[in-house]
Amino acid sequence: MTKHRVAPRVGVLLILLLVACIQLPAQSEPKSSLSKAGRDNIFRGDFTIVKDTEAIPANVKQSFAEITREPSFALANPGQEYQATDVVNPKKPRLPWRRLIFAGSCGDKWFIHYERGGIGHYYAIVLLSADGGKRSQFLWGGVGFSGAQDLTELRALVAAEQFSEKHSYY
User: Is the pTM of this model over 0.90?
Assistant: First the structure.
């Protein structure tokens, strides 16, 4: 008799969980959309390229952690080990899920171009405004299946709409 009572409760629980999951990202996801002209101009300027996470300011790291929904900043440097697949090695359980390709700054703008491992490997860009040590602000982000080797290639990929703005998970 308890079998018949448990099944409806489990069904109700699953429905509530599904509703919560659908509504949760909509409340906290960063969103910004760019026009074609905006994409063409987003990386204009003389950017200083960074290939070490230690060179990224603390306020940019904090915002990046929030955008990527991590409790703290976790980004491997280029060439370092990271969680490239969804199979977690029990000997190395704390590898970051993301690895820096390169980052850059120009004035108060910072971008971070990185790859994310796991069950669906992808490349991403997050662009932030960081003014003098205060909390930085999300300006734009995109997800794609091709990574750039340098700023020229990154500019071309963004202009060609190879990074989708429609994803809310970076």
Answer: no
